[in-house]
Amino acid sequence: MFNKLKEECGVFGIYSKESKVELAGRICVGLSALQHRGEESCGIAINEEGIIKFHKDIGLVSDVFTPEVLRGLPQGKMAIGHVRYSTTGKSKKENAQPMVVRHKKGNMAVVHNGNLTNAVELKSQLEEQGAIFTTTSDTEIICHVIVRERLKTGSIEQAIKNTMKIIKGAYSLLVISSKKMIAARDPQGFRPLCMGHLGKDVIFSSESCAIDIMGAEFDRDIEPGEVVVVTNNKIKSDKFLPNEKKGMCVFEYIYFGRPDSTIDGINVHIFRENAGRCLAKQAPVEADIVAGVPDSGIDAALGYSKESKIPYDIVFIKSKYVGRTFIQNTQNKRKKMVNLKLNPLEQTVKGKKIVLIDDSIVRGNTLARIVKTLKKEGAKEVHLRIASPAFIDVCYFGTDIDNKENLIANGRTVEEIRKKLGADSLEYLSLESVDKITKDCKVEELCTGCFTGKYPIEVPKNINKETFEKIKI
Fold this sequence. Notes:
By secondary structure, the chain is α+β, with helices and mostly antiparallel strands. 31% of the residues lie in helices and 24% in strands. A seven-stranded antiparallel β-sheet has the order 3-2-4-1-10-9-11. It has a six-stranded antiparallel β-sheet with strand order 5-6-7-8-12-13, with helices on one face. The radius of gyration is 22 Å and the shape is globular. 52% of the residues are buried.
């Protein structure tokens, strides 16, 4: 069960111009900047003179990579790291990344963001060929395919290119071998991946914010279908797969990305603020203040306030030291976490008509409690405005929407949802507004399958929940 969306992971890597450099601490800085993309587990793999050593575990970056652990990791020329959420799979140390593989032609480590749509088929095929699986992850499937292709070819990059012809769905990959670091992104570009530099060191990251925090320079996004190889301090790029229909996940802009990130040329904060402006035009209401549900609704709330001329104010104080509610494993725990995280400001709320902005509604339980809390504190009216269209379908590409039966919008009208949430009014951002924002921001195309049931590529047909769970990490 989920109250908020979960996006599975973030990846980060550094290729140094020097042969023996302390990289673990630097990778930790990058992973900490990407912690919002995965709070469940994390890991780092380092190439020490051709041999890959690693450490990974369940927990936040700061908890897993203590000073003692960092001192025990080697220096090296290149390293990759990963932060992760599980979706339908269980939280296990074995499922944490990077995945490190030793084979007849060397060794490699892989980190992956996304989900494959042909994972079940590939896993069955690989098992028939003798592959043994130790996890339930798509990443292990990718590793097996790369190794199989590596044993047929003369280079790791060619093996990855061969793999990209075989795997389908969403994948932003970082791979290190004994001599090379390779970045690859699927032909639709479902998940973000970018690169930058610090001096002559090359950096790859899921989001640009991690490059900025390193004090490095952002260079560009890895293009959909592109493979970038770094070896001998030289960068080689190959736009390997042709431009297919683009499919960047719309929720990278609406929710997943940090506001200070720029993804495929578009600043996340600006996209969200524009969503709020569109909401104000589309669904105006008389009110005293506009407020955002921390933190994901704040940027859109600012846009709504600017467009409507209704003052923006704060109605909740958020504790920064409480984990996200959706990683709690029982509903009672999630309820307690919501109460710990968000404390209402009675002086701001009492007697006021409030426009409350949130990025999305998934199950609706959290938002219903928020509305109830505001009214308990004396809010005269609470008008919900949601900075995305209603969820009606599942996601196959790395977002934790695996069963539409759990979605509040499934089979309900907006009025029925409003009553369930206890709000005085409710409006979602329209699909037309999403299209307008996309065009205004000069985004080529976005995947909005969770709103429409129409996806950029073919997805499994007549899929049931049991089968779907097999293709999720």
